[in-house]
Amino acid sequence: MIIIDGKAIAIQIKKEIVGEVNRIVAEGGKRPHLAAILVGHDGGSETYVAGKVKTCEEVGFKSSLIRCENNITETELLNHVIELNNNPDIDGFIVQLPLPKHISEQKIIEAIDYQKDVDGFHPVNVGRMSIGLPCFVSATPAGILELLKRYNIETSGKHCVILGRSNIVGKPISTLLMQKAYPGDCTVTVCHSRTKDIKNYCLNADIIIAAIGVPEFLRGNMVREGAIVIDVGTTRIPSSETRSGFQLKGDVAFEEVAPKCSFITPVPGGVGPMTIISLMKNTLLAAKKTIY
User: Fold this and answer.
1) Is the pTM of this model over 0.85?
2) Which residue in 13, 38, 67, 106 has the fewest CB atoms around it within 10 Å?
């Protein structure tokens, strides 16, 4: 059983990005510039955005953070998006989700210039991805593909079961793994909250990607010997054993499942670090203008 070290791979990619940024600047180009809009004070969002700002510094990007209170109106938020769309110094930007209930997330996503949509959520990017055209691929699915690639995990002809059908992970990773590419060429089954007998689907899977949002949903009796398991789950569970007062739990019962696997990602330290580094890769592509 091999534990897939997302942290180590992210560090490796970070070094590659630093080298590329240094080359661009040495040749007289501008530093890539990533901006983020953060609405409210959600703990998870604060942590994630702080991680993005820190990583920008580490790879030599410029970064900007626009903070908004929870009571911002949809119109005011849209105005911030339009300003970033029109700012030539900003190569890419994200609006951190979730947003307050009085704001339509879809409306905000569609307002973002798809050429600066480094989160890969705009319908233009999603549509291009679905037919295999160059685009910004959303960060978590892109990170999963990178892990499979860097560990030389064979995907062609494999049966991949995806637990979860979210627009951010489940749907895009299912599309990507069906593509005629590497990683790809999988036979894909998507399971979700309405799927009957999920255990049976999982037992027939060569690869399982757990992105269902239920802590330790995937148990040892649901996985066959030699399976590859990618855990996307990150649920905060209260804990008296940590300084922060919580610990992260994945969607996989790691202690039960790991002994049966050929490869498995841990939580934390698996897919998580790859998400931020994939966002950096998208920002670099936006700055180089090699897609659009």
Assistant:
1) yes
2) 106
Just give the CATH number of 29-117.
3.40.50.10860
Catalytic residue among 14, 52, 116, 171: 52
**CA separation for the pair 47, 6 (Å, rounded):** 18
Exactly one of 5, 91, 117, 119 is catalytic; name it: 119
Is residue 119 annotated as part of the catalytic site, yes or no?
yes
CATH code 3.40.50.720 for 139-272: yes
The pLDDT of residue 42 is 82
Token pair 């790809």 is found at 184
All residue ranges of the chain with pLDDT < 70 are: none
The residue ranges of every structural domain in the chain are 29-117, 139-272
Active-site annotation holds for 52: yes
Scored b (16 or more CB within 10 A) or e, 165-193 reads beebbbbbbbbbbbbeeebbebebbbbee
Q: Which two tokens stand for residue 235?
A: 């649920």
216, 236 contact by CB (below 8 A): no
Q: In what order do the strands lie in the sheet with 33-39?
A: 62-68, 33-39, 92-95
Active site residue 14: no
